[in-house]
Design brief:
heterodimer; A: alpha+beta; D-Maltodextrin-Binding Protein, domain 2; 2 domains; five-stranded mixed beta sheet; B: mainly alpha; MetI-like fold; 13 helices
Chain lengths: 450, 332
Amino acid sequence: MRPHAGAPMSRRRFLSLSAAGAVGGAAALSGCAMQVSSGVGGGSGETITMMVKADDITPDLVQQALKDTGIAIKRVDFDITKLIAMLTSGNPPDLVRGVGAVDAAYFAAREVMEDLDPYFAKSAVLKRDDLDPVNDLWRFDGRTQGKGPRYGMAKDFSQDSMYWYNTSAFDRHGVAYPAELEPTTYEEWLETAQRLVQRSKGQTSLFGGTYNGLLKATLMSTLTASAGGSLFSDDFSRIDFTTPEARKALGWYIEYCKLKVGASPIMPDPNGWDGPTYQAGRLAMCNSGYWMGGMIATDEKLAEVSRLAPTPVFEGGPRVSACQAGTGLWMPKKAPHKDAAWRIFEWYFGEAPAKARASGGWGIPTLKSLRPLMPAKAEHQKRVLKVQENELKHFSVVAFSPYTTGDSFEALFNQVAPAAMTGEISVDTLAGRLNSVLNEQLKRGKEQVG
Amino acid sequence: MTVDQMSTVADRPRATASAGRTRSAGRAGATMTARRHRAFYMFVAPWIVGFLLLTIVPMAYALWLSFTTFDGISPNWHYVGLGNYRELMNDSVTWDSLGRAGLFAVVSVPLSIVAGLGLAVLVNRPIRARGLFRTLLYLPAVVPPVGAGIAFKNLFDQNAGATNGVLTFFGFDAIGWLADPYARYVLIMTVLWGAGNIMIISLAGLQDVPRELHEAARIDGASAWRTFRSITVPLLSPVLLFQTVTGVIASVQTIMPMLLAPLATTGGLTTVPQSNYTYMIHVFSQYFALGRYGYASALLWVLFVLILIATGLIFRFTSGVVFYNVDPEAKK
């Protein structure tokens, strides 16, 4: 019989509580001595909190996780404000969604991320030599992204400067298809887009091509890298759009916007992204990497006429084909259930969900061992895979500054750049203005990091 | 002993008893009053607690933040005194956005009040299916702002929107409604689209206007316009004042530009065109895109003070033209 509240404690109960206390204390002490799980089986019976978007982990996957690992997942909608509130109140989620390309260095520099190297070292699921180089987006050595400890991992990825094109649009206009494995130049890409665009009375019925990247921050830094330069100073504390390479990248993007061959800040797509327009057959070239193949494959007719093309290059520039996102998960330093979180991390990135993602065609798996699962049955899938496999040889990590966020770059860029897109100011004036507002933001960020 | 004295003496026990009753009645009255006061405070306590916790505390916290460089996550934030306010004074983007918000209020508030009042007058007439018209006109006001934003984005899309479809059908060139410089007109149209809200309040006000005044004016030979101008509008003036004050407050705080931007999320605020980059969008941008909690809090406190001043000025300048039809006895 259970004693009522306030009743004196029986000897049996005292002994059992003492034993439980001793076991708990020992567990706590051993936890202090060794905080890293052996990998498989850690944290069973616990509940972890994951702050992700609804698509990242469906209710079915939550059930699957419980079955596979014994760990319950409580999903919290990703919201940066909520995340900051949780981090500052000392009660962070156990795993958080992040965009490796822009978030990793930012959060790591602020020392809120857990260094996952000790976990990777002991994991039997996520072996370091099996990790695709894209996961380097989640490394930061205190100064440069791509080096140093690992703070997270990408769930899948694409080389986002590649582009899809619709062969029927090319056929209609008698324009030759881009080469399958050799890149076109950015200049040629723009010429092709101009030849393909169809307009009447100020309305565009067929867009020649879109080239907005995933984020302006990663778009501009990868374009500058393609021109052979770097957008940031060596210590990432300054930005310079007036260098010949950055000026070339900026000038090309502004020209793209001015020509109105595709969506831009001065001709926004109400959908917010290119997918629906491409799906409707109203977009000839679409700057989205391999991942958009997942959407294209849902429509057989569209899949038949769609081709993936290599990332363009600037005339005389290097071949740079970066990942502009590398979305994945990281673990806050103060996460309350680290071992359980790591077990889910392993499961999410190396077990059933990772395999399902790899075979879904919505992205390249981030473990090399999962590459054979990429869809390659249909003719169109084989074609796409051939181009993609060739492109992987040109992958590189374009490092981003830890002193600003992708959102802040985007906000300041979109505040200043439309004037140049409408021809009110020159590209050189724009470069100066961008330097001014973005360097001010970087300066503030550097002061805050210390 | 005089008769008076006799009666006084005779009445003494009764008077004493009466005084006792008065004292006990007084005590009972005081107890009753205290009980009533206690009941009042108990009933309002939940609201007061909520107000303190959810309004005063966050406001005070924001005031504290406005003196710091807090960005939510960085380790080295510090107290800067009036630094954020000084920066704000010299920030041209802030003043431009405030100017746009002010202009939006100056244009949209009178337009929406006139539109709402016009609709109210129309649906106040004894016409067939009046209830249906009232419902239909009020319907847009019920649509959530996010839904309205999506509808307007699709309606005004340059390349596939119905608005440009009509324009090109009649031989005109399509317009980039959602980009500069036309985006501001779409924003104003969203306000007019939701004028049903103002219509409902004006309708309630119209139904409070005594019918006999209209009849007397008609007997005196006043035209419909004169009756409206000299009787209806003065009697509606408190309603119009209420709509002006709440309209100004709502319009300077509107986040509709964000909902009209391609991404109707916090990410959308980075794609708001310049002509719609109003003060609140600037605040959102500072908070959520740039992570400048301190500076954004200073912006909000300045807006709070400016709204107080604007409200005071509206009351001051309308005191001579607003007529309260209040029963003097009811004031006691």
